[in-house]
Amino acid sequence: MTTFNVNANDSMKRIQIFDTTLRDGEQSPGASIDSSRKIVIARQLAKLGIDVIEPGFAISSPGDFAAIQQISRELHNVEIAGFARCVQADIEAAVKATQDATRRRLHLFISSSDIHLNFQIRKSREQVIQIARDMISYGKQFVDEIEFSAMDSTRSGIEFVTELVEAAIGAGATIINLPDTMGYAIPSEVEELFRTVRREARGADRVRFSAHCHNDLGMAVANSLAAIRGGATQIEVTVNGIGERAGNCSLEELVMAIETRKDAMQAETGIVQSEIFETSRLVSRTMRFPIAFNKPIVGRNAFQHESGIHQDGLLKNRNTYEIMDPEAMGIPRNMIILGKSSGRHAIKHRLSEYGIIVNDEQMQTVYEKFIVAADKHKIVSDVELIRLAGEATDTQPDPYVLTDLQVVSGTQRSRVASVTVKEANGKERSYSAVGEGPVEAVIRCIQQAIPAAAEFEDLELHSLSSGESAYGEAVVTILYEGRRYRGTSIHKDIILASAQAYVAACNQAILSSGSSSQTEAVQDEESAV
Length: 529
Description:
alpha/beta; TIM Barrel; 3 domains; 8-stranded parallel β-barrel; 3-stranded antiparallel β-sheet; 41% helix; elongated; 2-isopropylmalate synthase; LeuA_allosteric_dom_sf; amino-acid biosynthesis; metal ion binding
């Protein structure tokens, strides 16, 4: 196995994590958020253990200015970076917005590549050097810490970058950022850039170096790791890797690469791993920016397995097919996905999570029907699997079964829903409720039906085919007694699928906590009254 060439006796290098989700990340098309929501994300970033937060671009809008100001006033355990072009008005806005921060820095940038100089800012190299000197000197009268970014460094030529960096250090810059702005570089080039500039630029030994890598060629994380190898001690990231075009270096991927390969990297961060998943979900929901299924670390499939061989190995020892512990990152344990490649071991394991025990004969019946369902839908939902188990055992394994649902929707009225739920004792009860949307109305009905109904936390809807007759998959996550449970259902009616998935998640929570009998006793008592 190839590893970085490091001295095993060297002490761990502490890598600062600079988060620009609220600035560069927000520049993703469609990812803009209300400034009032920025503070919510910033609080979570601080909880995550981020070293530096870049909350926005102060001069860009009054809303951004106000958000930066509020974040600067509230968060005292994290450094705040005021982002500005090498323009006096930008600097003044950034300084004013961050003036109440306990710790702050100015982050100044100017282009350095010939293509940017010739076609965008229309300045000569000499003019760029002088502007950088003047603006860093101007900013220095307000703050001690100044980070200087030579934008598009990786397409600028090492000699000029070295000259520009030297001028920036001479003017008072304390942190030098060498961005791969266009995601153009490959790891060997990034490492060489950092090594050369650190070696050749006068004063480089007095400053820290940072990397800001974009993901246009899918190498942002690899390039950031190469920058660390080249001497960088700060990496600039975004949650879920959001950002301009193909995005930035992904916070969760970088942090877990360093953590998982700590022996090779000889580096560490101060990130609180248990907050990674919650941070990812918050950013995705708030910015309405979905996470790809196969996204490393936080994607839906990152710790899920359909292959029967993999599933069997995982159930025997997790380390057979996983190199990280998802639960350590706050990711709910849900590693088995039931599909046509799944084996009996995985099916029996999933049924046991619902408290359903089947003998070998019943298991064979379930498996035969399971294969037919898997061929039809590819994935077999929890609701479908439990139905198959019920048929094989001639029982109702679940405490609750949704037997009927009706929803009335319209443009000028509240949505009205009614549901009928069958309890384990055979009794059926009906409930009705209203909501602003049909899913909300249905969930309110079910919460009346199930006294132990858990907090509805998240809903994912996915199309499993195309056309008007497409099947939709609903995945519902609930929070019950401090633990998360996930239920799934597949149906052409996505409202019905959502309701069934919610009931499945509630059933799993009830069975896992052993509260099913208590719930039945309460309902029998209520009906007697």
